[in-house]
């Protein structure tokens, strides 16, 4: 099984690519597309054989696809930030239908399994468009995934999407879960001693 490439951020992890090869491929394409970059040859040289198997320098120009994001989605793979940019572009143009369709595509479980960010983002988009009930459904989908994959602070995000009552219930459940975990950890000798807890 391939390992995803993630970036650790303040409020959890952000998915950069589903595989290392996909991430390298993206970097090479972006570098090739950046005509102002002088370090272009160095990057391709550093990628060596691995890069040659993934992307051949000049393929982006040969494709005649003018939009880099479109090229990445068609030729390299799906990336959360690229899909989010596409949705936001549709919203800026006032094309709510395309924004909703792209947002729904983003949430397909086969694309980014185990990550809550697609659902959280889709809920935010639906809320912006005025579809509160659907936004709540998307929010529930997000909260079924690990909260550290939301891509934002869960308290602030959940508070704007779900009612105060539901938010309080979620916080109580989450704090009870944390207490349960801590109690279980304390039952293991030496697990939570002062020396292991940094105290």
UniProtKB/TrEMBL annotation:
Keyword annotations of the record: Membrane, Transmembrane, Transmembrane helix
Entry keyword Transmembrane: yes
Chain ranges passing through the membrane: 157-178
Record-given protein name: Uncharacterized protein
Native source organism of the sequence: Populus deltoides
């Amino acid at each position: 099984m391939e390992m995803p490439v993630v970036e650790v951020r303040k409020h959890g992890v952000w998915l950069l690519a589903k595989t290392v090869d996909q991430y390298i491929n993206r970097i090479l394409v972006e570098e090739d597309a950046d005509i102002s970059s002088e370090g272009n040859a160095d990057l391709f040289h550093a990628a060596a054989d691995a890069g040659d198997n993934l992307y051949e320098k000049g393929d982006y120009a040969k494709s005649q696809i003018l939009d880099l994001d479109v090229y990445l989605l068609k030729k390299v793979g799906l990336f959360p930030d690229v899909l989010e940019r596409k949705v936001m572009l549709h919203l800026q143009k006032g094309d709510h239908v395309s924004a909703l369709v792209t947002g729904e595509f983003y949430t397909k479980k086969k694309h980014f399994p185990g990550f809550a960010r697609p659902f959280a983002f889709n809920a935010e988009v639906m809320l912006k468009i005025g579809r509160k009930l659907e936004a709540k459904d998307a929010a529930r989908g997000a909260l079924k995934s690990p909260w550290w994959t939301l891509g934002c602070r869960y308290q602030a995000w959940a508070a704007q999407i779900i009612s105060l009552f539901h938010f309080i219930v979620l916080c109580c459940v989450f704090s009870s879960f944390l207490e349960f975990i801590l109690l279980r950890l304390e039952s293991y000798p030496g697990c939570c001693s002062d020396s292991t807890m940094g105290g």
